[in-house]
Amino acid sequence: MNSNTELLRQLKIDKSHKEGHGGGGGSGGRTALIAAALLVVVLIVAGGAWAFLARRPVEVRTATAVAPSAASEAGAVLQATGYVTARRQATVSAQITGSLVEVLIEEGDRVKKGQVLARLEDNALRASLDSARANAAAAHANVMQSEAQLQQARRDADRQEALVGRGLVSRQLAEQTRTQANTLRAQLNTARRQADAADAQVGVGQVNLEYTVVRAPFDGVITDKAAQVGEIVSPLSAGGGFTRTGVGTIVDMDSLEIDVDVNEAYIGRVQPDMPAEAVLHAYPEWRIPAHVIAIVPAADRGKATVKVRVALEQKDARIVPDMGVRVSFLDRRAPTQTSAPKGVMVPAAAVVRRDDRDIVYTVADGKAARRPVTAAKQANGDLRLVTDGVAAGDTVIVSPPDDLADGTAVRTATTTP
User: Fold this and answer.
1) What is the pTM of this model?
2) Which terminus of the chain, N or C, has fewer Cβ atoms within 10 Å?
3) 357: which DSSP letter?
4) What is the mean pLDDT of residues 240-248?
5) Which three-class secondary structure state does DSSP give residue 159?
């Protein structure tokens, strides 16, 4: 019995030990819980930041893959981009200030030289012309009257001279008759000058009336309609936004050519009359024969470029002003029967080496797509021929970052034509 009592006593919990252990253990537990909560918060924030940065689009430069031309086989010494421009275009306006009563053009209309494009209100000018014509008619009637009086005076003078010869009238009377005839002759000359002045006023009125009709200065196409019926047009800007300075813009499509900005470091490769080939960005499969017209003797210090004028040897309705175009300058003209190489041309920097093979990153739906490609070993200027893996019109990434992965969201920074 005593042994059992002793065992029960040993199993009894010592309250002093319990309180001491409980007090110290409670404070340490709370500290551990707080530290664990802070660690969880830090991990959540870090995970969210990592996920945000992972989803943020990577800024890249892109270019458009274009179909190659026979220029490479013809010996392209340089390629550059530019724009289609019109050497002859004009914003047509009236030569006087007036209100439009008729506008006969719309954008896209083809017009001929001298064709009426618009008319101004002309009531006052017509009235002024009618008044000038009436004054001219009165002046011509005065001339006819003076002519009749002069003829009569000459006959009277002749009769007086005959009578003087026969001694029937005095010499003084004959001289007076002759003087009157001379006076009427001078009056006739004055009347004729007045009639000429009146005719000139009629001409002025007709010219002013013609100014109310706006005509096409040359054959072309209307590219902009700048005014409507009821608006005031003037050859001078009146300010305030209520006066138009032009009725419309006409472009001579036969004067289209290309302006190309060539880096001044390579301008020595370009010569006047040099053969070239142009490819419009809108029609990458269409190659247009061209040649250099002139190298403009001035440089742009901001862009370090020199402007080169290039003539298009084919005219087509698809070519319109301000179209983007890539020009290949050739050391000899491409044979007409030479076919273009198979594949597409992309910037040389778009082809990179990954995992011991050439790849190109394209952009589709805002994401980068990794594509294995077959590329030519040598670059053609700043371009490289890709024979497989990329199609014409695809958007490729120029100089892709080393850590760019397939499916990464991207954002275009600068698009290279």
Assistant:
1) 0.55
2) N
3) E
4) 77
5) helix
